[in-house]
# Entry
Amino acid sequence: MLASAEWAPFVEGFGPPAAGGKWGKLETLWHGTHLTSALRIAEDRMISGGLIYDGKLRDTRTEVIYFSPNTWGNGSRYGSFQFEINWSTLIDGRSLYWVEAIRDYQIPIYRFLVSRRNVSHLPVQAYDPELDTGPLRRMGDEWYWATGSAAEVVIDEAVPVHDISRLRFDKHHDDYCSEWWLNGKCPEKGWSGSWNAHAKLVACLLGRPLKTLNQLLVEHDILAFGVESALSQVWVRLINGRKFGGSITDDETATQLILSALLTFHAGDTDGARRIIDLIDTRERAERVLLEAIRQRFDTPSFNWS
Ligand SMILES: [Zn+2]
# Structure
C-alpha cells in the first residue's frame, strides 16, 4: 500500500493545518517511563534506545526511543515520569520518515522515524512535511500534528539528558500499562502508585546521591512542583509520626542514617527505613539534616518546605 493511502485516514476532513481544531502545534513531545527506567536514565545521563516491539521495525532489530506529543487525561500507560523534549531539538539535523499506521490498538497510532543515519535498509519512506499530506506538517517555521490519534515519533539514537527540557512527575493510568510482562501488576498504576514512584525516585536521587537530573528538576533554584510534593511524600512516610529518642546525637551520623533510610525506602522497605530514622535522637535533628540533604543534592541552598 502506498504510504499516502496509509496515512490518509489520520487527516481525513482535517483541512489545512492551523493551530486549534484538529491540528495541534508540534512543540513539545514526551518520553514516558516507569521508575526503573527513569533511574537508569539518571545513571546513564541519557535515554537509551530499546528494541521496538510492534510494527514494521520489529524484525529489523532497530533500537529506538519513543516520543509523543499526546497527553492523556486519565494518565499515561508508559509510567509515572515524562521526559520532555522540544520538537526543534528532536528534529535538528535529522530527517523525517513515515513508518506506518498501526491499528491494533483502541486508539490508532501513526508512527514516524527521525534519523540522521542512512536508513535505506529500513522499511520506511522519506517524508517531506511541506509537500506530503500526512499527519505531520510544516508551514514556514511552524509544525503541526494531527490530533485524535496516538502520534509516535521514534528516534534511532540515544538522547542525552542535556537535550531534555524537563522531567514531569505524572500520573500512571489506572488500568492500562505498557509493561505487558508485569501481567497487570504494575505498582505505579493510578495516583497512589504514581506518588509512591515519585517519592522513590527522589529518595534514590537523594540517597545515592545522583545529581544528573537536577537540570530537569530545578528551575531558577526552585524545585519543580512535582519534586517538592514527592519530597513531602518522603517526609510523610519516613519522619511524620515517628517517636525518635534514639542514641544518635550528632548531625554527621544522623545524615548518614537519613541517607540510608532513603535508600531502604527506595528499595521498598518502608518499615525498615522508619526503624533507621528512629535511631536519631530528636525530630528537630532528623528534619534539619533531611532539609540540608535536599538543599545540597538539588543545589537549592534556599529550599524550604512551602
Ligand atoms: Zn505501568
